[in-house]
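Weekly structure sync, notes
Attendees: PL, DS, HV (note-taker this week)

Item 1: Cytochrome c class I
DS walked through the input record. Source organism listed as Chloroherpeton thalassium. Sequence as pasted into the shared doc:
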Amino acid sequence: MARLFMALSLCVVMLSACGKKAEETHEAAKTEEAAKPAEAGITKEALAANYNLEKGKEVYEATCQMCHNTGISNAPVVGTKDAWTERTKQGMETMIKKSIEGYQGESGQMPAKGGNAELTDEQVGNAVAYMVEASI
Ligand code: HEC
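Item 1 (cont.): predicted structure, written out as tokens:
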């Protein structure tokens, strides 16, 4: 009986050790994935291929530049690389989603669709791409 118990507890210890290892590997993979877009995924070429930067510029000039050209209410200034390095690590999808829905960040309040509810998700995506393209 005691031997069976020993064998069982040994199993449990081994299992939990294995479980932990798998978890750690998974965490490492996730971090790597999150850091990738800035290094490899987000390039000027990829942005030009996947978004309409011309249309993005129009949207930017009409709706976004009032904050993002000057940094009013602490908005990250377009064309300032340092202001965007950490942000681009999130990847385009996340940045676009946050711009569509709006969010309260550490530096300030980004209004949903820059405050223009008439913009489509696609228009906001193009504007984000235009802004990022000018800031990397
Ligand atoms: C009223 C001012 C204002 C306007 C207008 C505005 N923004 Fe912002 N935006 C902000 C602020 C402030 C932040 C920083 C929030 C933070 O991270 O603390 C921000 C952050 C962002 C970010 C970075 C998101 C991230 O995940 O780090 C993007 C992209 C963005 N805005 C896109 C846009 C687009 C596109 C428009 C126009 C459609 C727009 N903004 C209009 C104030 C504004």
